[in-house]
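Annotated sample (chain length 111).
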Amino acid sequence: MMTEILTIKLDGRTVIEFSRSAGVPGHQRAFLERMDADMDGGILLGDEKIDRPDSKQRAHYVVEQLHYALQDGNQPLAAVLCTYIARSLPELKSIRFDLHEDRVEADLVYC
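Output written by the structure step:
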């Protein structure tokens, strides 16, 4: 079951409420296609190098990138990354990022 809103929380506060029903402008579609093509060459997920990531691994990689975009205050990039995540993980309801000393924990909450 797909939820309409994907909620992103950072240290307990909501920072993005992304609507899955929003259209995707052409320039964003092109960016997402390039991003996906780049991932064809492999990704680093945590400490693991994955040469041929599947769709779920790609989505989790993009979740990591979303955290970096939020930390940098890059809202336009965060919005594009939310689009990718929302399309790749339709049953995802929210992502909670929590900082614990020197590491970040991402909790993905599904319907």
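Annotation: The beta strands are 5-10, 13-19, 43-45, 48-50, 92-100, 103-110.
Annotation: The chain has a mean pLDDT of 91.
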